[in-house]
Amino acid sequence: MTLQLDAVDRKLLRALQQDSRKSVQQLGDIAGLSASACHRRLKALEEHGIVAGYQAVLNASALGLSMQFFIEVGLTSQSEAVLEAFEAAVLDIPEVLECHLMAGQSDYILRVICRDHEDFERLHRRLSARLPGVARVHSNMSIRTVKARSGLPL
To answer: Where in the numbering of this chain does the HTH asnC-type domain appear (predicted)?
Structure first.
């Protein structure tokens, strides 16, 4: 069963994406709801999977993770077994922040983060030598993030 979003839900979701630390009362004030009505709507949004979770946004540079790469991976085969083995292995690599199955030249694109060149070299070797089914790895280093958005347009 799909939840139909109205203007109030969208206003609530926008406020939540901007700052999920706001209290239910503060979110309700923004959305024009009482605290109890806001709580009910938030609960419904969570139960329908629209709000998938809450998290803190960390500053990678402040944590010494200053190098970001986008890595295109080509596999030896498109068989279900090869895809599943690759995906299972990628889940165990903490430096891989995102992994996308692609349609196009590459089978996957990974977004990875590293401390320095040596850290990236170690990760690159791990990706190309130890991940199952890897035929080709092509890396692109991000020089600067121009736009990063974790929220969705509502």
So the answer is: 5-66
